[in-house]
Amino acid sequence: MTRTKEDILKLIDDAGVRYIRLCFTDILGKIKGMSITRSEIEQVLEEGQGFDGSSVEGFARIEESDLMAVPDPVTFRIIPWDIAGEKVAMMFCDITHPDGRPYEGDPRWILRKNLKRLKDKGWTFYVGPEIEYFYFRNNRETDTLDRDGYFDYGTVDIGSQLRKRSVNALEEIGIAVECSHHEVAPSQHEIDLKYQEALVMADFAQVYRFIIKEVAMENDLYATFMPKPIFGENGSGMHCHMSIFDGDKNLFYDAKDTYHLSKMAQQFMAGILNHVKEFTLVNNQWVNSYKRLVPGYEAPVYIGWGRRNRSSMVRVPMYRIGKEKATRIELRSPDPAANPYLAFSCMLAAGLEGIDKGYKLPEPIEENIFHMSADEKSKLQIATLPNSLENAIREFEKSELVRKTLGDHVWEKLIENKKLEWDQYRMHVSQHEVDKYLSML
């Protein structure tokens, strides 16, 4: 889909839009931006909007702070509710230097850069994430709205109503939803978006998080994508389904293979398995992410693959006859607090490394790895993901592949930011420590 400046102006005027939000994403995945009025939009569509990038996480240093936000017309959408009584639209922007060069700290540009390798071949990288989240009564405590579980359906439950409203809002602005349901933990929900080209889906993931939070806030409740907000309950994941197409042909499908996976798909998956430790910091970037990645709560800890095995990190959904286009692989380790632009970039780069170097896919594991003994896991050479933010940083620092994928600027800024986060966590004295040690020591 393409849109011209004239198309945008007509949409604005027909809907009576007063303000337009120019959105972009910092390296941690947070939406940033500024609002402009209808009178300014024509010039901004032509020239972009200047701003100071020195205060944006992972962006420019003070001495090189001048940046431009250049709207991408394809991403224009009218927010499906009034804000302060006014119609408001939003657009995602690419960030450039004043001379027009892409800004190396812009996550959206990083994904564009990595997708170009496929675009040059005429291929398309598709991603379909399953994004989980929780509803709470406020943002200060984990007071849940229900005691429901997986696929429970409460027609009068406020959480179910909020989820339906969110689905309606997503579809109203052109974001296709495949299904939605209650998840395993109390007050936990999931809305699955129909697979899209990776850059489109990264934008959609950002809009998704915005809409989920806004709909909750309008009802005096709070939605969170925190990976593990409740001790003793399942955390929230962002399982990512991936495939590569050449036009309408799914390059991951092979009718003759036992798992209906082409050689390309097998090598792509082998690349993911081989390099996932290195980009776990991107998929799981917070101290709290590693409270989710523990055995016993369905989150993948062990590096392996299987078809029916949901204890494996990578799963190959069962092939259905006549559904060749649905053949895909599912990476289950990312969480919903990741930066989707950087996460998709790293998944793609690892997969392409497997294709380029002809990685051999190990044998599948169909047994429940959670129930295996240490000796059984050792015999099968089952490795584990980093078990803390500190260990994820160490793996990330050693990776030339990730450094090349993200570029020096973002690679260095992420390390700097995450080391600071780990130090703050390491020095904090928690209530658990007080309860456990104060009367003992």
Explain this structure to me?
Strand 1 (17-25) and strand 2 (31-37) form a beta hairpin. The protein starts with a helix and ends with a helix. The mean pLDDT is 90. It has two domains: 5-100, Ubiquitin-like (UB roll) (Roll), CATH 3.10.20; 112-432, 2-Layer Sandwich (Creatine Kinase, Chain A, domain 2). The strands form two sheets. Strands 7, 8, 9, 10, 11, 12, 13, 14, 15, 16 and 17 form an eleven-stranded mixed beta sheet that branches. Strands 1, 2, 3, 4, 5 and 6 form a six-stranded mixed beta sheet that branches. With 441 residues, it is α+β, with helices and mostly antiparallel strands. It is 37% helix and 21% strand. The chain has twelve helices and 17 strands. The protein has helices at residues 5-15, 38-47, 107-119, 158-172, 198-218, 263-283, 289-292, 340-356, 374-379, 389-397, 400-427, 431-437, and strands spanning 17-25, 31-37, 49-52, 66-71, 77-78, 87-96, 123-136, 177-182, 188-193, 196-197, 222-224, 238-246, 249-250, 302-306, 312-315, 329-331, 383-384.
Topology of helices and strands:
Elements: H1 5-15, E1 17-25, E2 31-37, H2 38-47, E3 49-52, E4 66-71, E5 77-78, E6 87-96, H3 107-119, E7 123-136, H4 158-172, E8 177-182, E9 188-193, E10 196-197, H5 198-218, E11 222-224, E12 238-246, E13 249-250, H6 263-283, H7 289-292, E14 302-306, E15 312-315, E16 329-331, H8 340-356, H9 374-379, E17 383-384, H10 389-397, H11 400-427, H12 431-437
Parallel strand pairs: 1-6, 14-15
Antiparallel strand pairs: 1-2, 3-4, 4-6, 5-6, 7-9, 7-10, 7-11, 7-12, 8-9, 12-13, 12-16, 14-17, 15-16
